[in-house]
Amino acid sequence: MENKEKIKEIVSGCLRNDRKSQEQIFKLFYGKMLGVCMRYTNDRDTAQEIVQDSFIKVFEKLKSFDNSGSFEGWIKRVVVNTAIDHIRKSKKDPFLTDNDNDFRLGGVDPTIESEELELKDEKAEIIMEAIQKLSPGYRAVFNLYVIDDYSHKEIAETLGISEGTSKSNLSKARMNIQKMVEDKFIKLY
Amino acid sequence: MENNFNNKIKQSFEGYELPYDPAAWDNLSKQLDVRMPVKSKINSKIWIAALVIAVLSISTIIYFTSNTDKKPLPTENKEDINSSTATQTTESSTEITGEKTTVESTSINEKVTLEPITIENSKVEKLSPQEILSTEIQSTGAKTTTNPDTKTVNTIPVIPQMKNICLGDDIEISNANKTDIFLILPNGKSTSVKAGTKTSFKSGISGEYLLGYMKNEEFIQKDFFTVYPANKVDFTIDNENLYNEGIPAIGLKATTNAASYSWDFEKLKEVSQSKETEVHYYKAGTYKITLTTTSENGCKNSETSKLIVKEDYNLMAANTIDVSNSNSQINTFMPYALTVRNVKFVMTIIDANSNEIVFQTNDATQAWDGTDKKTGNTATGTTFIWKVTISNPQPGETANYKGVITRL
């Protein structure tokens, strides 16, 4: 994965505000981080804007990276936080939702047992499309918990909601994702 | 099964990547040029040349002066020393040697000690301007020291170490340098701290504050600190349930999350550190309840609400007795609180007309049934006074209660 020595060398260049090193870092992680942002928003322009803001923060805060963990993980954390900030600024209290009406799709049976739904060969694009159809509140909780390894406690603190709302939003988001992915796969196969 | 679902979703995004877009870097690069400007290469060369020229000129002047005349150099200022280098620049790539010399310039209080010196230009050119400025000159056999107090040219100011603080705290920045330092606020506005001064102001905006200095009309960031936003604090007062086991108890619950909680109740000594708690007021009145929470960043914030207690606590006692009623709660008298509290007491019933005691007990199960203890018959009066003295009252609670009973 990360070539630690190579990354260390490029980071050292970035710390000197060297543009070429910054460009190298950007090239290395742009695609992955755009993918992360696309999970948190539902349009590419906004995702690109978040990526830009994130990398400015990355370069400005680089000295706080202590080399102890994964550099990619550190960048991803900055990107996720920037995405959350962006969503928060774009709408008043976007995460304080625990309302079924906030779902963008209808006709979902909330009684579907998760055991009944075995995901088959999921494809990121299909799942991405499903995630993007969720409301910002559900989308953020789903991404943070399922993909980005946040605990409900961390989610509650990050989004300014209760742990109960986080769990509830996750549960409903997960049911919707399962339903949407299952529908897609049925159409595909 | 749930974990299986999570894992599959997560796995599907492992290595997920979108194509690189060169235009994105162009955009970012433009933003970086504004936020984190880079010195141009021409500037670098100018800096290097200026540095080499400065070192060479000083050493050359000293060399010639010391060889031709052993007297100390006359008083010179820095500009004089720099300007005299123009004629010596052609020697920049040659080896210059001389005796160790000390020059004292009284007007600028600068002491320069030079030893025989060899300058290798190729070595110097590899350094960036910032490295040159921040690194002591180390040339083969050469050592140049300058009194730091008198550095006014090519000097990076020492930026004070700032701790992260909370919104509303005072920001105090001391600038002991000979040059100004600058602070860029999260809203993009900037302020300067003049050389040798101290500034203090209240942090009114949360976010990152950038510290640095100006060079060639560009802001060079050296450090930053964070002003954490105020944590939200809110709580609810339970106005439905006013008693708990016979004691006035109003439930309070913090509705915002925090690392720690601290409740303060007006006129009471008791405090609480729980997210949910209850408060006991025995007298009617309006009381201020303050919840102070501390966030994980260590920031504190408070919220105060008024709690209204409508009536004095009087042991939840009834004010009538009807001996003809079949309901034991109506045909006898015992303040309800005494039957549910674990409390030591003495209750006395007095005839309001005769002022004689008609009943006395210290047992909550022995309610007064309307009889006069002297005669064993139903007391003749219609109005009675009850008095209760508690020997182990709660904190903030009075020991003595009294009321009127009307016989129906």
In words, what does this structure look like?
Chain A contains eight helices and no strands. Chain A has 189 residues and is mainly α. The two termini of chain A are 33 Å apart. In chain A, helix 2 packs across helix 4 (71-90), helix 6 (136-147) packs across helix 8 (163-188) and helix 7 (152-159) packs across helix 8 (163-188). With 408 residues, chain B is of the alpha+beta class. Chain B has helices at 2-13, 22-35, 41-68, 78-83, 121-125, 129-134, 328-331, 336-340; strands spanning 101-105, 110-114, 165-166, 170-174, 181-184, 190-193, 198-202, 207-215, 218-228, 235-237, 243-244, 247-248, 250-254, 260-265, 271-272, 276-279, 285-294, 300-309, 320-321, 345-351, 357-361, 383-390, 400-407. In chain B, strands 3-9-8-5-6 form a five-stranded mixed β-sheet, with no helix packed on it. Chain B has a five-stranded mixed β-sheet with strand order 19-23-22-20-21, with no helix packed on it. In chain B, strands 15-14-17-18 form a four-stranded antiparallel β-sheet, with no helix packed on it. Chain B is elongated and about 125 Å long. Mean pLDDT of chain B is 75; it is low at 67-154. In chain B, strand 5 (181-184) and strand 6 form a beta hairpin. Chains A and B meet through helix 2, helix 3, helix 6 and helix 8 of A and helix 1 and helix 2 of B.
Question: Which characteristics define this entry?
Answer:
heterodimer; A: mainly alpha; 8 helices; about 0% strand; B: about 400 residues; alpha+beta; 5-stranded mixed beta sheet; 23 strands
**Helicity of chain B, in percent?**
10-25%
Helix-strand makeup class of chain B: alpha+beta
Cα distance spanning the termini of chain A: 33 Å
Low confidence ranges of chain A: 98-122
Give the biggest sheet of chain B: 5 strands, mixed
List strands and helices in order, with pairings.
The complex is a heterodimer of chains A (189) and B (408).
Chain A: H1 4-15, H2 19-40, H3 44-60, H4 71-90, H5 124-132, H6 136-147, H7 152-159, H8 163-188
Helix pairs in contact in A: 1-2, 2-3, 2-4, 3-4, 5-8, 6-8, 7-8
Chain B: H1 2-13, H2 22-35, H3 41-68, H4 78-83, E1 101-105, E2 110-114, H5 121-125, H6 129-134, E3 165-166, E4 170-174, E5 181-184, E6 190-193, E7 198-202, E8 207-215, E9 218-228, E10 235-237, E11 243-244, E12 247-248, E13 250-254, E14 260-265, E15 271-272, E16 276-279, E17 285-294, E18 300-309, E19 320-321, H7 328-331, H8 336-340, E20 345-351, E21 357-361, E22 383-390, E23 400-407
Parallel strand pairs in B: 3-9, 19-23
Antiparallel strand pairs in B: 1-2, 4-7, 5-6, 5-8, 8-9, 10-13, 11-12, 13-16, 14-15, 14-17, 17-18, 20-21, 20-22, 22-23
